Amino acid sequence: MDTIKSFKGYGKVDPQEELAFKRKTRKRLIILSISLIVLVVLIIGAVVGTLVHNKNKNGSNEVPSTPTSSAAAIKAVCSVTQHQESCFTSLSSMDSSNSTDPEKIFQFSLKVVMDSLENLSTFPEEWMNRTNDPRVREALQVCKVVLDEAVDYLNDSISTMNVDKGGKLISVPKIADLKTWLSTIITDQETCLDALDEVNATIVEDVKLLMKNSTEYASNSLAIVSKLLGILGDFGIPIHRKLLGTMDSGFPRWVSAGDRRLLQAAMPKPDVTVAKDGGDVKTIKEAVAKIPKKSKKRFVIYIKAGEYVENVILDKSLWNVMIYGDGKTATIISGSLNFIDGTPTFSTATFAAAGKGFIARDIGFKNTAGATKHQAVALRSGSDMSVFYRCSFDGFQDTLYAHSNRQFYRECDITGQEGP
């Protein structure tokens, strides 16, 4: 067994490295500021150009209709995307798309993605009824899970753009959220295709065709927020930003002060204690059943020393959960699901976390399937803003599946086999 990677903690930033980082950041800000000005000029120029063209064409000084100027603005915004034709066509066809504001056009682009995703999300169950092949059905179940998740993240994206009167439509934190969630929406669709491709399903090409619009539209929205709305937001950070986006305590800025205290506390007060010889419950699954759905309050589970042989899933509705044990070699969660025995790679995880804000500390995650069983995941995380502190991940192939969203690992060990 080879140690593939080990994450170590971060101490104080070296002054010379910090100075070099500041210089690079200033240079990037200058370049990106110029780029932003150029993009804005392009959009304004496209609209003005249309006005002049129509004036010359009509031989009058009348201001052209809003749809004409809107079309020019949409075309300019879509110029930053990879799929410019589908971007322009989809946005132009919207009833409420007569706006020249890039931020509003971006909002319309999210609605376009939602329409396509809602149409797509019904296919897994429909197609499950057409096949008796258990492996294809398992793969379609993966599609159902990830597409449902994609719809949720798109709803979050749309909600974050809905602001009260006088509120700020776009900000640096919002841009970071939108880029993350739109990337996850694309990843979720790719995960569905990967699951089907694993079983050599003949329906893969059909599904790719079904996904053509939703993947292109999501890519368009991501390009707009990244290259246009977020061109400064991407690097528009204070000059005094620490390396790797960490704070002095060695955690990302998105880890709250309260959560950092929990991570550093000797024994955080648990809501539920799991112990093989007692406690509130004897299994982790029993503890998971007690977690409130979509809670904004941190729910803490303490798992006492021992090896717990069970497969645990924290689905997308279980938010802000923290689990901690007695050490990464003392508290072990173990399983053996694997691809060779009929489980899609996505579903082989001994422990899976999808709900946002997940934290794990002082725990080991293990998949004991062995090298001959091919893909066998110890931990899969798609939890946004998740933290793994002083944990171990032990397996053979695909030990750690960092699926999507923002994740942070500190003082963790990963062991596995590099090849099949």
TrEMBL record:
GO terms for molecular function: enzyme inhibitor activity; pectinesterase activity. NCBIfam families: PME_inhib. This is pectinesterase. GO terms for biological process: cell wall modification. Keywords: Aspartyl esterase, Cell wall biogenesis/degradation, Disulfide bond, Glycoprotein, Hydrolase, Membrane, Transmembrane, Transmembrane helix. Pathway: Glycan metabolism; pectin degradation; 2-dehydro-3-deoxy-D-gluconate from pectin: step 1/5. It comes from the Eukaryota. Its EC number is 3.1.1.11. It catalyses: [(1->4)-alpha-D-galacturonosyl methyl ester](n) + n H2O = [(1->4)-alpha-D-galacturonosyl](n) + n methanol + n H(+). Residues 69-224 form the Pectinesterase inhibitor domain. CDD domains: PMEI-like_3. The lineage of its organism: Eukaryota, Viridiplantae, Streptophyta, Embryophyta, Tracheophyta. It holds the Pfam family PMEI. The keyword Membrane applies.
